[in-house]
Structure formats: C-alpha cells, structure tokens
Amino acid sequence: MTGLRPPVIARWLLRLLVPRTLREFVEGDLEEEFAQVVHTRGEAAARGWYWRQALESVWLGARSGGRRKRTARTFLDSLWQDVSFAARSFGRRPLFTVAALVTLALGVGATTAVFALANAILFRPIPGVRDADRLAVIWFGRPSPHGGITVSRVSYPNLDDLNAQLLGFESLAGSQGGATHVASAGAEPQRLLSHFVTPSYFPTLGVQPILGRLFTAEEDDPVQGGVPVAVISHRLWTSMFGGDADVLGRALRINARPFDVIGVLPEGFRGTERLGETDVWLPGSTYRYVNHLPATPSYADRGTGGYYEFVARLRPGATWEQAERELRAASTRLAELHPGVNDKFSEVGPTVFRGVGTRPLARGGITSTLRLLFDVVGLILLIACANVANLLLFRGVTRRGERAVRTALGASRGRLVRLHLTENGLLWIAGGGVGIGVAWVMIRLLAGTTIMSVTVSELTIDWRVAGFALVASLVTGLVFGALPAVLAPRTQLVASLKDAARTETGGARTCDRGSPSCKWPRRWRCWSARSSSSERCAS
Amino acid sequence: MMVNLGEFEQLLLFALLRLEDQAYDVTIRQEIERRTSRSVAVGTVYTALQRLEQRGLLSSRVGEPTPQRGGRRKRYYRLEPAGARALAASYESVQEMSQGLAPKLARLVAERGTEP
After folding, report:
1. What letter would DSSP give residue A306?
2. Which whole-number Å values give the CA distances from A116 to A442, A457, A458, A465, B14, in the listed order?
3. pTM exceeds 0.90, yes or no
4. Which of residues 76-115 of B touch A (CB under 8 A)?
5. Is the minimum CB–CB distance between B63 and chain A shorter than 8 Å?
6. Which of A59-63, A260-264, A407-411 has the highest mean pLDDT?
7. Which residues in chain A are contacts of B52 at CB distance < 8 A?
8. Which of B44, B50, B73 sits opposite A28 (nearest CB)?
9. CA gap A183, A256 in Å, rounded
10. How far apart are CA A439 and CA A106, in angstroms?
11. Do B41 and A56 make contact, defined as CB atoms within 8 angstroms?
12. Chain B neighbours among A 71-110 (CB < 8 Å)?
C-alpha cells in the first residue's frame, strides 16, 4: 500500500460536486483506485487520473440532479438554479439590466483604467530585472538650496575604493544616460537613448542576454578607454535588424563611431525604469570616444569624470539601514584617504532611493498625482454603485409580491437572501466584465499621458489590472449588492400578498391555468386573486 | 412490459453477472475497461447504476469500511431478476439482429478500415 494521498484540491472539488448520498462511495472508490494507479503507472499519472475523474464527476451532480430527491441536491445544483433564474429575470427587464450594467461598467471601467496607469508606472514587474525591491538607485551629492540634491560625480578610482569597502551592498554599478545618434550600416541615424554603464551593471540587475553576451571587465578600461562594443534592446534588435539572429558582430554607428553588437537583452527590458526608453548600452569608458571628447586625462585619474548615478543590490541578509550606514562611512573615508582631490566628499554624501522602476525624484509627484486620480475615480465608482443599489432597492419593492409567494410556498429567509445575493453578484460580475471593456477603450485614450515627465507609452490590461477590476466589482457588489438583498426579504407576508394581488391584477395580464407556460406561483396567484380579480384566469 | 437497455447499460449488467458478489464501482469499471478497452469515468458508472436501480433492474447494499478506501464503505450491486430478464431480452435481440452478419461486417470493416 502507498502512503500517497490524492491531490487535495481535486478531493475538495469532488466533495463539492458529488451529491452527499453518493459522496462516501465515490470518494472511497477513487481513493482505492488511486493507490492502484500509483502502483502501476506512477504518481504523476495517478494525480492526473484523479483530477480527470474529479472533473468528470461534475456530470454526476448535474445529470442525476433532476431525478434525485431534494436531499441529494448539491450546492452546485441550487447555485446553478439561482444563476439561471437570475439571468432569466434580468433578461425579462432589459431596460433595468442595461441601465445597471452601463452604470456599473462606467464606474468599474474608469477605476480600472486609472489602476492600469498606476500599474504601468508603479506596480508591474520591471521586465528582465530580478528582485527589484532589493535594488536601489544611489546618487552622491549635497543638499541643494532649492530642496533637491546637487549631484556630484564619482570617478572610477573612487568607485573602486567604495566597492572595496561595501558589505551591505553587493556592488555599486555606475550608469549614465545620454541621447545618441545610432545607425546600422548604410542607414539613416536615429536619435536614441544610450546608457554608459560599468560591467557590473547587468549582473547587479540580474539581467541575462537572450543573444550573445554582456560586457567583460576588460571592455570597460578606464586607462585605455573602453572597447567599442554595444548591447542592444530587444526593440532595437527587431526594428533595426529585423530580429536577425546573426546580429552579433554586426556594426552599429553611434555618433558616427563604429561599435560591434555583442548582445541582445530580453524583450521589455529598457533599463531600471518601467517606462524607460534606453535602446543601447555601452561600456562607460567609451563615453569620451562616443562624444568626440579628448581622451586625456584618462578615467584612471581620480579627479576626472565618473558617474552621477549608481544602482546597487542589497546583499542577502543585510538590512537597508546597515548598508546605508556603511556607504556613508565609506564615502567620508574617501575624503580622508585622498585629501585635496577628494575634498568634496567631506560634504558630498550618498542618497539611497530604495527600489527601482521610476525616476527617484519623480516618485513622490507620481504617487500623489495617481492618488488624486484614484480618489476621483473611486468616488465615481461609489456613486455608480449607490445608483445601482438604488435601482436594486426599487426593483426589490416591485418584487415584494414574488417574495411573499416564495415565502408562502416554503422558501426560507436564508434561501431568499441567497437568491438575491446571487442575482446581485451576477449583476456585479457582469458589470466588472463590461467594465474591463470600458477600461480597454479608456486606456487607449490615456496612452501617451505624461505624468511628472514620465510618458506612459505602453498601457495594457494584464492579470493584475483584470484582477483589480474583478475585485473592485466583487467588493462593491458585496457591500452594495448585499444591502438590498438583506433588506428585501423583511416583508410582511399577508400585506405583501394582498399587495401582490392588487399589483398583479392592476395590469391586464392573462394567465392560462392550463398552459405549461403558466408556472406554479403565477397559477397560485390567479387562484388567490380570484375573488377580487380583474385578471383573466382561464380555467 | 418490455424493458429496453442502452449499450452501456448492457455492459454494466454483464459486468454484474460476471463479478457476482464482488461487483462494486471500482471492479465494475475495471472489468468494462479491461474487456472493451475503453476508458470509463466514475460519474458515468454511478449515474447509470442509479438509473438502473431506480428501474428495479439491480439492487445495492452497503459493505464494510476498508483501510484502502480511507475507512469508507463500498456500495455493492447485484443483478435483480427483472434486470436478468431485461439483459437476456436485449442480448437476444442483439443476437437475432446480428445472426449471420459477422462475415459481412468483417468484410466491410476491412474494406473501409482505412477511412477516418
């Protein structure tokens, strides 16, 4: 005998699907046979087999549902009954349904569109970057009188000194962006954003090339100047080289200087920012070569050149506080070790912006702008929900008679609340679904928006955005849909029945008692309303 | 009254006849799978057995719990006389209808065997 148990979720599903009267036997049969299948065909096959059997048992509940006694009904049977009743009931009142759906969809759609914006700027993972929450952007500078930071460069020898002293950060990788004119052989140049980086830049981010390789330490030589090699983005690879696999070794002219392509980065990776636009990465020490600047004094000179911006990864087990303390101490020590040339480091210190994905100084502005937008659309959603709840309450009043009849026929209060909850739940889920459609249209209008100088070029509905729409509609549905549902069944039976009789007889409805389309409650209403009826009940 | 049996119902009743007092869902399903080389879902077997029991063609009893089944009981099935009569009649009609047709059928299968 094997000690393996069938998959838990499949067992749970089975319990939900199989009628109570059969459950023990079906579960026992499957457990017995599961052990046999494990023995003959192995564990994976047995799990697959169990899942198949569990899923096929849906029909066990559905097919025999009609013929079995009431006690054998599964939860699924009655849920399905409620859902199909709710759908029919909405179908009978198309005006109400359309009004409620449009109201909900606009509310959910607007909120979802703004969430898609926030997702694109703040939440979605940065393509290609590993554990972005352990990365930080670091600037060296002194506080500026205007409230910001006046940044200062850190030269190659100083960077080496800093890296030698760090324990909390894995390494400081330098990165410096700049506009360049980039062209493939014989083509017109395009103005594109390039980044000059240290060879540790990509390993720090955890980015791997999909083609070729990344920079070696020798290719970023501060003494000789860097080797003219380039790593390009997936976008540039497809747009400039047509996605050709032979791109490695091909020539690229950057500001009219020849470079060799040595690697292609994964799709979507455009630097440390979610909406970054970098297409070319070059060894940092090629900066002067690319920009046609004199090569002397070399980057090996402590007082010359260097990077304004760094990215660093927190070492496993280290804390931010400890790492930042160490970095500050190391920076002060630069001034002590090399007086004169490094005097500025007695005033200049590091500022660590934890996390990457958005430009450090734009973060506050972006967050507050998005929060304001969110508050506004959140209010719109609340107003929409309140409107729909209003519609539902009104509809509840008009259906008092129907509820009284159900109660008279033996429906419990709990059952009635469930029916109403199912109806309202269905409405809100449908509203959420249409809302995603509305959001899809809205994000087409929002694409290209610039918030705090971040241009939102790509807006998509990914699982996060769709999940948000669904959760937003479910939560509001639960709150605003449950209220009418709970309030609704509190009706005075006799008064409601009398009311129902009056209401039903008010219109010139015809109900043929013999016709199969005349369902039980209607027939009963005909009968009960006979004495004071103007409703024509054909016998 | 003449009781009509579907093809799968016939297979089930034959399985009961063959398995005698060892007929429960697992053995019935395995018997059918082994002899007809088709895969049978647990839901299908239970639905058909319930239908046949409601028609009085078979009866069921609850057995003892066993450790292999996680302490759950088995439901054993037995062919009732009405079921035996229905099965005999169905089998007879199949035999009547198929008498002497085997070679012809085999030839047709061989001729058109390659068609999808």
Report:
1. -
2. 10, 12, 10, 6, 62
3. no
4. none
5. no
6. A260-264
7. none
8. B73
9. 8
10. 8
11. yes
12. none
Please tell me if residue A41 touches chain B, with a CB cutoff of 8 Å. Answer: no
Cβ atoms of residues A201 and A175 within 8 Å: yes
Q: Which of A32, A57, A59 sits opposite B26 (nearest CB)?
A: A32
The ipTM, to two decimals, is: 0.85
C-alpha A295: how far from its chain's center? 48
Q: What is the DSSP string of A312-344?
A: EEEPTT--HHHHHHHHHHHHHHHHHHSTTTTGG
Chain B, window 4-43: residues with a beta carbon less than 8 angstroms from a chain A beta carbon: 24-26, 29-30, 41-43
Q: State which H helix or E strand residue A455 sits in.
A: strand A454-455
In the block, which residue shows the tokens 């002397």? A296
Write down how long chain B is.
116
B34 vs A43, A403, A499, B13, B62, CA distance in Å? Answer: 21, 54, 65, 15, 25
> pLDDT digits over A310-333, tens only?
999 999 988 999 999 989 999 988
**Residues in chain A closer than 8 A to B75 (CB atoms):** 25
Residues A427/A100, Cβ–Cβ less than 8 Å: yes
**Strand A149-151 and strand A229-232: pairing?**
unpaired
- Taking the C-alpha atoms of residue A342 and residue A218, their distance in angstroms, rounded to an integer, is 26
Tell me how crowded residue A538 is: count the other CB atoms within 10 A of its CB. 11
A27-55 confidence digits (pLDDT tens): 899 999 999 999 888 888 999 989 888 88
